[in-house]
Every structure is written in structure tokens, then in C-alpha cells.
Amino acid sequence: MTDTTPEALGGTTLPAPAYGALIEQVARKSEAVVIPVGAIIVGLAMFSLFLVFLGKSPVDFISLMYKGGFGSSFSIQNSLTRASPLLLTALCVALPARLGLVVIGGEGAVVLGGLAAAAVGVPLLGSPYVVVIGAMAVAGMLAGGIWIGAVGALRHYRGVNETISSLLMSYIAIALMNQIVEGPLRDPSSLNKPSTYPIGKDYMIGNIPGMDVHWGLVVGIVACVVSWVLIEKTTWGFAARVSGGNVRAAQIQGLAVGPLIVGFTALAGAFAGLAGMIEVGAVQGNANASLAAGYGYTGILVAFLARHNPLAIIPVAILLGGIDASGGLLQRRMGLPDASVLVLEGILFIVILFSDTLYGRFKLFNPDLWLRNRQ
Amino acid sequence: MTDPSGVGLWGVPLAILGGAIRVSTPFIFVSLGETITERSGRINLGLEGTLVFGAMIGYATAVVTGSPWLGLCAAALAGICFGLFHGWICKFPKVNDIAIGIALMQFGTGLAFFFGKPFIQPVAPHLPAIPLGFWSDIPQVKAALDVNVLFILGIVLAFVLYWAFRNTRVGLIIRVVGDSSDAARAMGLNPNTVRLFATAAGGALAAIGGAYLSLYYPGSWTERVSSGQGLMAVALVIFARWNPLGCFLAALLFGGAGALGPALQSVGVTQGYYLFYAAPYVLTLLIMIATSSRTRSLSGAPGELSITK
User: Fold this and answer.
1) CATH of domain A78-324
2) What are the pLDDT digits (tens) for B199-244?
3) Quick one: CA torsion of A198, A201, A203, A204, rounded to 10 degrees?
4) What are the sequence ranges of the domains in chain A?
5) How confident is the model over B118-134, as pLDDT tens digits?
6) Distance from CA of A292 to the nearest CA of B (A)
7) CA–CA separation, B99 vs A307, rounded Å?
8) Are the Cβ atoms of A164 and B281 closer than 8 angstroms?
9) ipTM for the complex?
10) Which residues of A touch B96 (CB under 8 A)?
């Protein structure tokens, strides 16, 4: 694409007036917002078309989705609750992605994080609240961090493809969790649904004052902001972006690519592990098979929709939380199977990936193309 | 040997052998399909979604028409559609084939669950098996050697592909496109068209593998019909070094690992059920670790493949 740069066209000396520079900047920035939003709208339109073929009303679908996701204060709080694990699991995909790695095994880190949190929390019961919750958080983050950090290490030091290994490891993690929950850590009173001993009501993570949403939402938002600062404003983040762009170039510059990859994947896994710990501490009360609820997989979609920008993850996770929250309503009112949410998410995912090809194609967003016409 | 039916501990290797034959068939088809796709220089991670959709549509068609063979055809057709879609969308610049695969995995699975709901209850006719164990009186031996037609087709296909990649025009075209797009263009070939058809062929085989799951073993359509076979097959292709015969052997090995848990359970070992269940995943991971290398590129890898670059 060298022919679109002004240099290649000999247009560098063209003095642009100040307001022109501003317009150029706005045009460049707006591309990053207009294309994803447009893709989401196209995705919704395609799903509506799918519904029309099935003889269902897309208008009902849109209005029910709005009602179930964002229509009332109850549904907004429901969406926010569902968004909070997604914030963390999306980071588990977005952080490695900035280094050029496609890690899709966040589900395993969630499961092991929750299990480790319960395993550490239960023996500590009786200690002060802060100690128990702190230890659980550390255990969850360590478990998740080691799990996904291992994926990064295998990638860098052994050349093992991270996409496949992370998914395999999440299957292994779920099997490990099932084995441990049914075996050594089982609470004998949990008959139908093997679980660990509960951490008890007194040690549960409470709700944000004035809302029916637990503190996990705040943790998730803070994690997104911290990740954004890390990637965009620190030397480490810069180094990570350089090696994500071109590993060879990063190595020639003397960047320690190995520790960067292991560090970022471990941090990513720690966030997903934290999501598991919050799921245990704020929702389930113990570790059981419900930890594998698919947050890791929805997190992949959130990260790709947000184009791996940690700040953009916040609104996208809330949107996806809303879509998840409206699933029940769609099922009851329109008689759609619960998998409709999966279909919608799949369509959104494909459309957003396809939209990658559109960047730099629209004249409106590319002042370089205007410059070419000016000459 | 007083009791002919009590094969005792021999039951374990017998059950593993029988299980390996039964469990490996979907692996054979998916990995052969992925071999064709990857040899052309693209990777389709969406085969897992194709497999689940193939399992659903194959079962549904068999329920409605009463013929498992029509089900198999329907699955293959659906697989071709998924493959064509993947191949078409990946030809656009900056569209990442791995990410599209992940998206198609979710989309295919979602679509299968969406349309598959009404077919969880009805019973479909199964694909026929050939009783190769007719010479034996021992029921375990008979059970182990009840071989499905698709398994035999899979073996034949592996040999045919092995031969075709070396000796036919089509095989050479796929290989040149996979090794160097530039060389292919210089020969007047359009890499995108070749990859489109290679991905379609891969999709068809993956969907047949899925139909085997729902129409023979385990033999019913549920939302848990696949346990990641479509994905493990991708790892298996790397292990087999893109060699169709290697795929067949690797699939047998994976099938054996998958049959380990049920085989031990059948003789009363119930400890560690979940860990045995995880055996194929652990095996895949270990094999990937053992066969990958940081410094040299994998021998036999198609040059245009993004996963090994």
C-alpha cells in the first residue's frame, strides 16, 4: 500500500492549513469507531434477515433485546453483572493479541482461578475478611497466570502454536477441576452437583452500594483501564506492540521478546483467573462445574469486537452482557432456542473480522487519498 | 481359560483396540480434510463448528428420510458450504484465517444447536457396521472388530490422498499453491481459487466426520456430541507432518487415548475418570511440545501456512 502515502506521491511539501489538519485527524480517528459500529449494525441486520427467513419478527427481536438488556434498571444491572467476567476474560485475549498471539483458552484460566480461590479460601475461613479475599484473589490470579503464562512460554521457547495449545489446556483445566471437585476437595453434602466447601455468606464479595451488581464490575473496569495504560503509555507496552508488529525487528532492537511474551500472557491469564475467583467469591460461593459457563469463549468475541483495545472492551462487554441477558426473554417471548444468542454472536464475530479488510479503503477516513486527488 | 467369555484383564487392550477403531474415524476424516486445506496454504480452525453442524444435519436428515446415507450426503454438502464460506472470506486482504476459523467454530456450533433442538429426542437409523470379528466366539473380540464402513473408507482415502498429492495434477497444484503463492501465480494459477476448493473439500470431510459421530458412535445427536475432535485434528495434522498416511496413524493413536477411560471403566477402574477423559488432550499437547521447535521450521510444512510461519 505504499502508493497511498503522500511521500510516494511527492505530496509531502503541501502545506495543510490548520483546520485541514484537524479535519484530517478527526477523519482518521473516526474510522476506528465508525467501522466497528457499522459492522455491529450490519451483523444485527443479518441476524434480523435470518429471523425473517424463519418467520419471526426482527422488530420484536430488537425491541425484546433492548428490553431484556437495557430497558429497565433491573435489566441494566443484570447486563452489568454479566459483563463483569467478560471484561476480564476479554483482557485474556486482548493482551496477548497485542503481541501477535491468538490465545483462546481463557475458559481454562477462569476454571482454575475459581478452583484455586476456593481451595485457598476454605482453609482460611475464620481469618479476617481482607485476608481471605486477598488470598483468594492472589491464588486465582496465580493459577490463571501460570496456566496462560505456560501457553506463552511454550509458544516462545518451543514454538508451540498458542491458539491450539491454549484451547487444549482449557479442556485439560476443566477435566482437572471436575476431578478435584469430585475427589479431594469435595464437600460431602453437595450431592447432585459436586462442589467444594462453601466460603460462607460472611466472606462473599458484596454488591456495589446502591446497585444490584457485585464489585467484580469495578474490578473489571479497573483492570481494563490499567491494561490500557500499560499498553499505550508505558515502555513495556510499547515494546510489546513493537514485537507484536514484527518479532524480528523487536529482537534486532534488543527487546527481550521472551520475557515480554511470558509476562503479558501471564498477566492475561491472571485476569481470567481473577474472573474465576470473583465468580466463586461473588456468585457461586464455592467452586463447581458451573465455573465453565463459557465466559472465556464470549471473552474472545468481546476482545475481537473491541479490536483488542482495553478501553473499548468496557462498552463492548456491556453490550454482549446485554445480549446474553436478553437471551432468556427471547426464548420465552419469541420461542427462539437459547442458541439464538450463539448464532447472533457468531454472525457479529464474522462480520467484525470481515470489516478488517475495510480499513484504509474509504476515502472519507483517509486524508492521504484526498491529497492524491488534490494533485 | 475355563470361561470363554471372561477375557479378564485382556478386556482392557481389546476394548482399547475396539475403541481406537471407533473413536479414531472422525479424527481420520477431519484430519485428512484439514490436510488438504493446509497443504493449500490456509488453516481452517472452524472445522470444529463444521463437524458439529455436520453431526446435526446428518442426524436430522437421517431422521426425516430414514436413510443414514442421505444424512451423510447432507452433512458433506453443508460442510462444502462452510468450507466455501471460509475460503471466500479469507481471500480478502487483512482478513485473518485463524480468527475467521474461531468465529466459524462459534457460528457453526451455534447454528447446529439452533436447528438441532427438535432432533435431540428422535432416533435416527445408524450407519451399518461390518462384523469383522465373525471368526471369534468371544463377545469382546466381536465387539472390538465391529468395524464401520466409514473407517474403511477413511483408510482408503488416506492412501488415495497420499498417492494423489505426489502423482496427480490436482495434488501438485494444491502443493505449489501451498508452498508459494508467487510460484503459483507465475504458473498462471489463482491461489485464492485453489484454496477455496481445498477448504471446501476439507469442510466436506470434517462434516462427514461429524455425521459419523451422530450416526454411528456415540450414535445420537446431543449438544455435547463433539468433544473437540475438530480442533484436536488440527494439532494432529501438524503432528502427522501434513502426510495423509501419518494422519491415519495419528488418528488411531488419538482414538486409543480416547478409549482408555471407557476401557478402564469397563473393568471396574473408576478412579480418575475425568483424568482419563483428558488423556487425548494431554497427549495432543505433549506431542505438540515434543514435535515443535523454536528455531527450525517444521519439515514438510507448506510454506504459505500462517500457523508455522
Assistant:
1) 1.10.3470
2) 999 999 999 999 999 999 888 999 889 888 888 888 889 888 899 9
3) 90
4) 1-9+17-56+336-375, 78-324
5) 999 999 999 988 888 78
6) 14
7) 12
8) no
9) 0.90
10) 353, 356
